[in-house]
Amino acid sequence: MTDTFDFIVVGAGSGGCAVAGRLSEDAATSVALLDAGGRNDNWRITTPFGLALPYKAANWAFDTVPQQGLNGRIGYQPRGKGLGGSSAINAMVYIRGHRADYDHWASLGNAGWSYADVLPYFKRSENNSDFDGAYHGKGGPLHVNRLRSDNPIHDVFHQAAREAQFRIREDFNEEDHEGLGSYQVTQHKGERWSAARAYLEPHMDKRANLRVETGAQATKILFEGGRAVGIDYMQGGQTKQLRARREVILAGGAFQSPQLLMLSGIGDGDALGAHGIGVVHHLPGVGRNLQDHPDFVFVYASDYPHFVHASLGRLPSLLRAIQRYRRERRGLMTTNFAECGGFLKTQPDLVVPDIQLHFVIAMLDDHGRKKHKEAGFSCHVCLLRPKSRGSVWLKSADPLAAPMIDPNFLGETEDLEAMVAGFKTTRRLMEAPALRALQKKDMFTSEVRTDDDIRAILRNRVDTVYHPVGTCKMGTDAMAVVDPALKVRGVDGLRVVDASIMPTLIGGNTNAPTIMIGEKAADMIRGELTHHSLRCRPGESRDP
Prior knowledge:
Blueprint (H helix, E strand, L loop, with lengths): L2 E8 L3 H10 L7 E4 L8 H4 L15 E6 L5 E5 L21 H9 L7 H11 E3 L13 E5 L6 H11 L15 E4 L1 E2 L1 E2 L2 E2 L2 H5 L10 E4 L2 E9 L2 E9 L2 E13 L2 H11 L2 E2 L1 H6 L6 E2 L11 E8 L13 H14 L9 E7 L10 E6 L15 E8 L7 E3 L10 E3 L6 H18 L2 H4 L4 E2 L8 H11 L1 E2 L29 E3 L14 H25 L9
Parallel strand pairs: 1-2, 1-14, 2-11, 5-6, 14-25, 15-16
Antiparallel strand pairs: 3-4, 6-8, 7-18, 9-10, 12-13, 13-14, 17-20, 17-23, 17-24, 18-19, 19-20, 21-22
């Protein structure tokens, strides 16, 4: 007998955890949450320093197709797998983006998604230990606070920012976020606080109406008469099925939500037909509109004692750090590595900052996959609102095959030139006396002098900073996949609740905005349930 729930949520990432957790607050509403990965409740996930340790079980580790704008290089796209999704393996930086990003969404026809509309959901999700007032929440499930690493590099970074004549900013999530400073993180008492720890773990053994299935790879959405009614999935080598009374909610992220839609017959009809997939509904925007922040990393060797060795050397100091973490939940083991950074304008007449910096207390080469003998530091610079658009499509009709991913980095000349300006702006900070004094060796940019030199190294070294969005975009135009209520256009009983619905990329890290999307989706769904129940006569079924 097939189990039936009111809602089936596919994907336990930031959006999926938030919407499942909130919907299951109503004991009369049953929710099943599926994820292909594991529980992600071990020390390599909960200890922030574990970010430096390879953990393949929690990472899909996708590759891109060759990138024409990057000299044909194949890029790397790590994505979280298991409960918490990418919030279980990210750098924990808590950033919402600029208010202009959300006002822009609303201007595109997405009613209810302006900054004033979404701010209450950011606040509802948040339990901020450091900030209060109009922009922050207390008592939400997502813990947010300052780092407990106690690394003196923060003072050095702030001094360099002042020397380079950049403003120091205390809070990056107020009305404006221009400036440099130290990031807040999604941690609690020195431990990673993923979306799963916030929205699922406190309730998994207490709510009879919430069922969480791990190791469950969704393979197809089931439709009857143009309505989504369930999910086929693989678990333990067996094909299984769940049925949904009300809705199937996709939360697989910017790569796997469009992939599952296409596997299930929702997408461009010609492309689906080429794989022998029957068309349930022709929706050409599925998999289109992929956006991501192109990112360049400055890397320097250094003898400064508070940087992390790529090989995790200096064993005595590492053992002391572990002992301190066990005692106090403070020190090096709490680092998110990207401890400082901020938002800058490459041109003074820009309305909002166009680049973001992540200052890392280790040498980061090829996403940390290439190791060096020396200790050192790095500084990311990414372009916040690139013009380039990419896509995701099916490699085959095999649901277990990885999707084909093309971010189209630097596909537009305007992006390349903006990155040249971002390179120069970031180098100004790197050459400030406070940071220049720490540099023993410039690993990659010592010979880069002219604009052509900069263009060449950008094409040789740019890759993702892990913020893909947009492939099931929200909107009202012909290429929109979901409407402003996040319902998939042209079918019933199906929504998408993750970063893929963003019509345009927000100017910052995408984890907090994706949690906000989950919070807002749950509120919209509950509002519809209330409206529907009020319309039903006594004794009448509430099922659609």
